[in-house]
Specification:
With 527 residues, the protein is an alpha/beta fold. It is built from 15 helices and 18 strands. α7 runs antiparallel to α14, α9 crosses α14 and α10 runs parallel beside α14. The protein folds into 2 domains: 157 residues, Rossmann fold; 316 residues, Dihydrodipicolinate Reductase, domain 2, CATH 3.30.360. The structure holds 6-O-phosphono-beta-D-glucopyranose. The site of 6-O-phosphono-beta-D-glucopyranose has 6 residues, from loops.
Length: 527
């Protein structure tokens, strides 16, 4: 299949899955003047509109404190979505812009006029299309505003148990991370939400779950007979999950200082990937069954004893260095970062899943900023072949290497299996070859529906399968909590301990070396 055909099929797939055109609805985007809106949310909504997936009666109300007119808001959004304009975008934009409006108002405090104005706008929209009764509230705001906004919407009877649409209406929330700062705050937030809302109406977004290749993990494991029989402690030696980035703070130093790599990447994205690799087959394909199974995995992950944090968890922080030939500053020199910051920009963990399938199989997770390569991937390393007929040091070349299954999550999306094969020619020299499936070539990467598009559509369709449920989020916090507590109470005297542009701190290599293993290196795929 050519890559073009594959891309076309995927684009059609998005529309087909959604039932082609969505029913009319109104999206209220809180945090509409912010960075996330411009980088991720608005471009995704525009692309959905451009694909003709949104109903002609779809309407978006941008809500934020910044004073702007509708036209100023449209101009700002136009700039955000037209960063790399493509053919047909101008006309599509004009059509789309007519469906945008803006509401400058306070989120919280004494002046709650904004919520009254929202009610008024819903009424107007209702008269025309009924879209006003189908409401998607997108919270792209700082997390401390989640609870107040939701409370005011509930008090104003615009959402939640107080919202009783006459016909076929609904009110859902899409909430951006972070869902809490630690276990206690995550529980408090979930409890707050549960007071006025039904869990089924809450869509906690983890954009990794919207990635095509991540969703593909289910198909790979459960629609093929060749993987599942091997997918356990008998045949798998260990699993590595890596999210390596070359990016630094990109103006997000203020947020990152309060988060660090473990909160920013591990508590959510990496533990989600871990759960999907380790999940038992759900009995049915629905959001409850899938998420129940994920929670079971998260609960089976052994909590790291405080006394073992030093042994099983690694933290790092980058010093100045160079990335792709360009000098970059150290973390402590980034904007809004303390000059003696103790925040980790790199973390690696060794986890165990205490269940029958995975007993004795370590899962190594790592994530870091300002590393040599941008590479997010899952590596499943199988056990070595139990016996080979060739004499060691005989004609086998480098020796027989274990099979690998690598799921490439970004920047490319794809899957390959490393197998051993005979080198063509005389004798029995072996080489490793990759059986490769590439989901995104250059064209595919820009044309394919983004994770945000997938997830936005799911939230409009009312399918929370690929969103994090309250109990998942809390279980994930429970896993990282001992590490966060320990690190919060003990300074790391060796910070900064890796150079920007390197592979990370040496202690991360030691974490695996102690077990006689090493991190997978993509430059070393084949002989
Ligand atoms: C975000 C983190 O959730 O995920 C960022 O806050 C990180 O720090 C990003 O860069 C990585 O996502 P992706 O899809 O670019 O790999």
């Amino acid at each position: 299949m050519t890559n073009k055909t594959m891309t076309d099929q995927r684009l059609q797939g998005v529309a087909a899955n959604a039932g082609r055109v969505m029913e009319p609805c109104t999206l209220v985007l809180f945090g509409a003047s912010g960075d996330l809106t411009q980088r991720m949310v608005m471009p995704a909504i525009f692309r959905l509109a451009r694909r003709g997936v949104l109903s002609p009666e779809f309407h978006l109300i941008g809500y934020a404190r910044t004073r702007m007119t509708d036209d100023e808001f449209r101009a700002r959004m136009r700039k955000a979505v037209m960063r790399e304009p493509r053919e047909g975008d101008e006309q599509a934009w004009t059509d789309f812009a007519a469906r945008l409006s803006y509401l400058p108002a306070q989120y919280d405090g004494d002046d709650l006029q904004g919520y009254a104005e929202l009610a008024h706008r819903f009424e107007q929209l209702d008269r025309g299309t009924g879209a006003g009764a189908r409401r998607l509230f997108y919270l792209a705001t700082p997390p401390e505003l989640f609870s107040p906004i939701m409370k005011h919407l509930s008090d104003a009877k615009l959402a939640g148990q107080a919202h009783h649409p006459a016909t076929g209406g609904w009110a859902r929330f899409v909430i951006e991370k972070p869902f809490g700062h630690d276990l206690a705050s995550a529980r408090a937030l979930n409890a707050d939400i549960a007071r006025s809302f039904n869990e089924n109406d809450i869509y906690r977004i983890d954009h990794f779950l919207g990635k095509e290749i991540v969703q593909n993990l289910f198909a790979l494991r459960f629609a093929n007979v060749i993987f599942e029989p091997l997918w356990n402690r008998n045949y798998i030696d260990h699993v590595q999950i890596t999210a390596a980035e070359t990016l630094g703070m990109e103006g997000r130093g203020g947020y990152y200082e309060t988060a660090g790599a473990i909160r920013d990447m591990v508590q959510n994205h990496l533990l989600q990937l871990c759960a999907l690799v380790a999940i038992e087959p759900p009995a049915e394909w629905n959001s409850r069954a899938v998420r129940d199974e994920k929670v079971k995995v998260l609960r089976a992950i052994r909590r790291i004893h405080p006394g073992k944090v030093k042994h099983d968890a690694v933290r790092g922080q980058y010093a100045a260095g160079s990335i792709n030939g360009k000098r970059v500053p150290g973390y402590r020199k980034e904007e809004k970062v303390a000059t003696d910051s103790q925040t980790e920009t790199y973390t690696a963990l060794k986890l165990h899943i205490d269940n029958v399938r995975w007993a004795g199989v370590p899962f190594y997770l790592r994530s870091g900023k300002r590393l040599a390569k941008h590479e997010t991937e899952i590596v499943v390393e199988f056990k070595p072949a139990p016996h080979t007929p060739w004499m060691p040091g005989g004609t086998v070349g480098k020796g027989v290497r274990p099979n690998l299954l690598v799921v490439k999550v970004s920047p490319e999306e794809g899957i390959f299996i490393r197998v051993e094969a005979k080198q063509p020619g005389q004798g029995m020299q072996l080489q490793s070859i990759n059986l490769d499936y590439c989901l995104s070539d250059e064209r595919g990467a820009t044309e394919s529906p983004s994770a945000y598009e997938h997830l936005l559509l799911d939230s409009m369709r009312g399918d929370p399968t690929f969103f994090a449920r309250a109990d998942e989020v809390e279980s994930a916090w429970e896993i990282v909590e001992p590490v966060i507590k320990k690190w919060g109470s003990e300074k790391s005297p060796d910070f900064p301990n890796y150079t920007a542009g390197s592979a990370g701190p040496a202690s991360a290599d030691e974490l695996l070396a102690r077990d006689g293993r090493r991190w997978y290196d993509s430059t070393d795929q084949a002989d």
